[in-house]
Design a protein that fits this description.
about 240 residues; alpha+beta; Arc Repressor Mutant, subunit A; four-stranded antiparallel β-sheet; globular
Length: about 240
């Protein structure tokens, strides 16, 4: 199976607990985008884009509305973005992006996850150099039609895969919404299974036995940290 399948599976196979995590993650991003500008997506492009990503991840309209209304109020809550980089067993690496109102607390919680999994936090840049930022779109369609549309729109397509009637396109991050707009201009309003900017590793590793168990533990522990927004790693099959 191609990485397109992995991306779609990771996006769609969510438990109820995972959905709650997704809602919380996008809730913070919507609040921050609304707070940093006009709390109206028709006048705030950043807010409009976050809402589009949230909808692609099946975030309910009431969650979106609630966080916009929160930004309109007198709430002075502020979040700081941080990225932590680390090493797992047998050449595995991981990036953890957080959004927190208390960076010291978040660092302590992330470090605890690594320690309990016998993994190690690294210095800034020690892992991220081997990852590449990609805009990813996944939707029903065909490779040939999609390529034609995006080439006409001068979108920088890095890779494209078609599987079981679904297309996954990898583009330069700055072209993510250019690609979305071009596709919808040609095909009408679309449902995207994935619409996001992600960090993809240049190389993958496979873990088994105790190594796999420890890495799975790390992922579970990080998922329980409220401030963790995104986790990227280079382990296949997880």
């Amino acid at each position: 199976m191609g990485r397109a399948h992995e991306v779609r599976a990771a996006s769609m196979a969510k438990t109820a607990a995972a959905k709650t995590k997704v809602y919380s993650r996008y809730g913070k991003e919507i609040y921050m985008a609304a707070k940093s500008g006009v709390p109206d997506p028709s006048m705030n492009v950043a807010l409009k884009r976050v809402i589009e990503k949230a909808k692609a991840n099946q975030v309910p309209a009431d969650v979106i509305k609630r966080n916009i209304e929160k930004a309109k109020g007198g709430n002075a809550e502020a979040y700081i973005e941080n990225r932590y980089e680390g090493f797992g067993p047998s050449g595995s690496t991981i990036l953890v992006e957080t959004l927190s109102d208390n960076s010291n607390r978040t660092l302590a919680e992330v470090r605890s996850c690594f320690n309990k999994s016998h993994c190690n936090l690294g210095q800034s840049g020690s892992v991220s150099f081997n990852y590449e930022s990609n805009g990813i779109l996944s939707f029903e369609g065909t490779e040939d039609e999609t390529l034609d549309i995006l080439m006409m729109a001068d979108v920088d397509v890095k890779d494209i895969e078609e599987e079981d009637g679904n297309v996954t396109v990898y583009v330069d991050p700055k072209d993510l919404y250019n690609a979305k707009d071009a596709l919808e201009a040609s095909k009408g309003e679309m449902k995207f299974d994935v619409l996001e900017i992600s960090m993809l590793p240049n190389d993958y590793v496979t873990l088994d036995g105790d190594d796999k168990m420890l890495f799975e533990r790390l992922l579970r522990l990080l998922d329980d940290v409220d401030d963790v927004q995104h986790v990227y790693h280079n382990v296949e099959g997880m």
